[in-house]
Amino acid sequence: MPNVAQPVLDVQDLKTVFRTRGGEVHAVNNVSFSLKPGELLGVVGESGSGKSVTMMSLLGLLPSPPAEIRHGTVMFDGRDLLKIKPQALRAVRGGQIGFVFQDPMTSLNPVYTVGMQIMEPLRKHMGLSKRAAATRARELLELVGIPDAQRRLDDYPHQFSGGMRQRVMIAIALACDPKVLIADEPTTALDVTIQAQILELMQELREKLGMAVIWITHDLGVIAGIADRVLVMYGGQIVEHAPVADLFRDPQHPYTRALLKTIPSISGERAKRLTVIEGQPPLMLAAPDACPFRARCDVAFARCAVENPPRYDVGHGHDAACFYDARTGAPRHA
Amino acid sequence: MLIYTFRRLLISIPTLLFIAFVIFMLLELAPGDPMAQMPLTIPPEVKEAMRIALGLGEPWYVRFLLWLNQFFIVEPQHWIDQAFGTSFAEGKQRIISFQSRSPVFDTIAQRLPQTLWVVGMSYVVGVLIALPIGIISAYRQYSVFDQAGTFVSMIGFSVPPFFSGVLLIVIFSVQLGWLPSIYDTTLVVNSWDTFKQQMMQMVMPVMVLALQTTAQVSRYMRASMLDNLSQDYVRTARAKGMSESVVVLKHVLRNSMIPVVTVIALGIPSIFGGAIITEQIFKVNGLGQLLILALQGSDIPMVMTITFLLAVLIVLMNLIADVLYGVLDPRIRYE
C-alpha cells in the first residue's frame, strides 16, 4: 500500500447534528480520516454509531432539516465538498464518487427500467448520447456479472433478485469511473452466499479499476477479509483507527476489544452463548464532552466522565481514543 | 392488457344488469305518482287511463324487461339509424319521459353539453391546480405554502358547494356586480364578446366545483409524494448526481401518480353527483337539474336512465383506473 501518495479524500473535523424535538442529536463528532488512492478503508461500528451519516454528510445526501453540518472540511480533488456550489457537488456525486446503499430491494426506482437508471448518470456526467450510454450500460452490466446483459437492460428492478439488484446498484455507482466508491453496508441485506459473491466482485473490480473504496459494515469478518485500514466508530466518533492486521492483533480501544469478542467462532463449544457488549449504545443527545463508551467500559475511570478522549497515536498508523493505555495497563498521562 | 380489458368489460355486463335492477326496484318501491302534478280538474278515471297508457298497468318485471330492451337494443338501433340512415329501430318505442313525452335520450343530449362544460372544466381546472399544490406542499413540508395548502384543502373539504356557491354569488354578483349569477344556456358562442360572456358565467360554478376537487386531489398528491420522497430510491437518484427537478419530477412524481390517477379517475362520476347541487344554485340547466326535476315529477324513465348512466360511468372509470394502474406501474401485469 503506497504511503506516500496524496489522499484522494481527506476529511477533517467533521461534525453533523440532527435537530429534533428532543434536542440536538450529535450524530457525527469531529470525525477526521483520509483515504489514499486505491485503498479499501473499512468502517465498522454498531447501528447508530454514525457510519452512514458520516459518509452521507460528505456528499450532502442528508435531508436538511433536520441534518446540519456544523463544521469540518472534506477535501476532494483540491476542493472542499462542503463549500462548493450544489451544481458542482452534483457533478461529484455519481460522477467522481459512487455510492452503493444497503438495501438493493428499495434502492432502485421500481417504475423505470434498469437500463434507464444506469444510463441516467452516464448521460448527465459523461454527456453520452443515448446510443453510447446504452452500449456502456450493457458493458457495465457485463462487468458486474449479470448474464444476458443486453436483454436485461429493458427489465424492471422487480424482475431481478436481491443479489442481482445489488450488482445493478454497483454498476450504477461505477458508471462514470469514480475515483472513490462508498459502499454503505452493501451486503447486509443479502444472504451469505450472495454476500460472498458481491465481496468477490468488489475485490475484483477494485483491482481492475483501481479506485479507492470506503466499505461500511458492522461485520468484522467482512472487514478482516478485504480492508487495508479500518476505522472503528462509536457514538458518532472514531474510537480506533489501524491497519487491518494491527486492529485484530492488537486492539487498543476497549470497545474494539469487546467487539472482537462478540465474533462467534466456528471451533468454539456449541453450548456457548453468543457474547454481547452489555449496556445500551448512547443516545447522543448530550453534548460530546465525555467518552461515549464510558457507561459500558470495563476500564473507565473518573476522567472519562468529564473529558472526551482525543485520538492517541500508538505508532504504525494506529491510534485510539482512550485515556487508558492498553499496552501499559494504566491511564495515560494528561 | 387488451384481453384483460375485454374480460373486465364482459364481467361488467352482469354487474350493470344488477345495478339496473336495484335502481329499478328502488324507484318501484318509492312512493310517488307520475299523475300527481296533473291538474286537479282531470277526473280520476282519466288519470287511471293515462297511467295505463304510460305502461304503469303492467307488472314490474314486464316494465323492467321493456326498459332493458329499450335501453340496450332500441336506443342503440336508433343511433345507428341516425348515423347511417338505416331503419332498424323503425316502429319501435324509445324510452319516453313521463313529463315531456319526448325521448329521454334526446333531452339528455340537449342537457349534456352544459354539464360537461361546467363539470368537465371544473374537474380539469381542479386537478391542474391540485397537482402542483400537492407536489410543492410535499417537497416543502410544513412550509408556509404547505400550511396555506392545508388550510385551503380544509375549506374545500368542509364547506359544501351550496354554501360556497351562494357566498360567491353574494360577493361577486350582488356586492361587486362583476359576474352574472345565472348561467345563460341559450348563449351561443360565435364572437369574442359572447366567448367572454361564456367565460364570465362559467367562472363561479367552475370555481365552486374545482375547490372541492382541488381539496381532495391535492391532499392525495401530497400524501403520495411524501410517501415516496422518503424512499431509498430517491437517495439513490440524488447520489447519482441528478438535479432536484429530475429527482422530484421524474423519479418521485411517476411513483406518486400511481395512486393519484386512481383517485382522479374514480372522482369523475362523483363530481357529476356533486354538480347536481351546484347546477341548482347557478341555474345551469344541465343533467343535474334535469335529474332533480325528474325526481320531483316522478318521471321514472328519466330518473332510471340518468341514474343508470351514472352507474355505467362509475363502472367504466373503475376499469380505466385499473388499466392506467397497469400502464404506470410495471410491477402490475394483467394476464
Regions of chain B with pLDDT < 50 over 5+ consecutive residues? none
Q: Which CATH architecture of the domain at 112-299 in chain B would you pick?
A: Orthogonal Bundle
Please state the overall shape of chain A, judged from the principal axes of the Cα atoms: globular
Largest sheet of chain A: 8 strands, mixed
Which structural category do the helix and sheet elements of chain B fall into? mainly alpha
CATH class of the largest domain in chain A: Alpha Beta
Q: Helical segment tally of chain B? A: 11
Strand order of the largest sheet of chain A: 6-7-8-3-9-10-12-11
CATH homologous superfamily name of the largest domain in chain A? P-loop containing nucleotide triphosphate hydrolases
* β-sheet strand percentage of chain B: under 5%
Notes on the structure:
With 334 residues, chain A is of the alpha/beta class. Chain A has two domains: 9-96 and 176-331, 3-Layer(aba) Sandwich (Rossmann fold), CATH 3.40.50; 108-174, no CATH class. Helices cover 29% and strands 24% of the residues of chain A. In chain A, the strands form three sheets. Chain A has an eight-stranded mixed sheet, with helices on both faces. Chain A has a four-stranded antiparallel sheet with strand order 2-1-4-5. The model of chain A has no long low-confidence stretch (mean pLDDT 85). Chain B is mainly α and 335 residues long. Helix content of chain B is 76%, strand content 0%. Chain B is built from eleven helices and no strands. Chain B has helices at 2-29, 44-53, 60-84, 104-139, 144-158, 161-175, 192-229, 232-239, 244-282, 287-296, 300-328. The mean pLDDT of chain B is 87. Chains A and B meet through helix 2, helix 3 and helix 6 of A and helix 8 and helix 9 of B.
